[in-house]
């Protein structure tokens, strides 16, 4: 699966047949995505590769550890490696040829916008679930 930012300067590839994704409804993800939730996934580093240089990617890190990587040319969110873990966070909206995406979870529903509604039956977490359990759910067959 190929992915890119809006301007095409950042390109990457996932070696996966399908994507299990989540929609995070926390205030940070809403601000980062500019919409009701952030649609993302977490993939093992061995299933991820950069196709372009990363020299134009900028990072912003909040004191809590939340980080946001983005293309310095167009501002699109781009994948970033999870601190101290062999995984990448990937914004699913950046995938240009994803034919199989399944939303499996909705974290942070306790802080979702009052106008936001969840239209599927995926598992909902009031807050952030345990990261290791969550990664397993996103990568289980």
UniProtKB/TrEMBL annotation:
Limits of the CENP-V/GFA domain: 1-116
UniProt-recorded Gene Ontology molecular function terms: carbon-sulfur lyase activity; metal ion binding
Pfam families, per database record: GFA
Keyword terms: Lyase, Metal-binding, Zinc
InterPro entries, sorted: CENP-V/GFA, Mss4-like_sf
Similarity comment: family membership: Belongs to the Gfa family.
PANTHER family named in the record: CENP-V_GFA DOMAIN-CONTAINING PROTEIN-RELATED, GFA DOMAIN-CONTAINING PROTEIN
Protein name: Aldehyde-activating protein
Source species of the chain: Nitrincola tibetensis
Upper taxonomic lineage: Bacteria, Pseudomonadati, Pseudomonadota, Gammaproteobacteria, Oceanospirillales
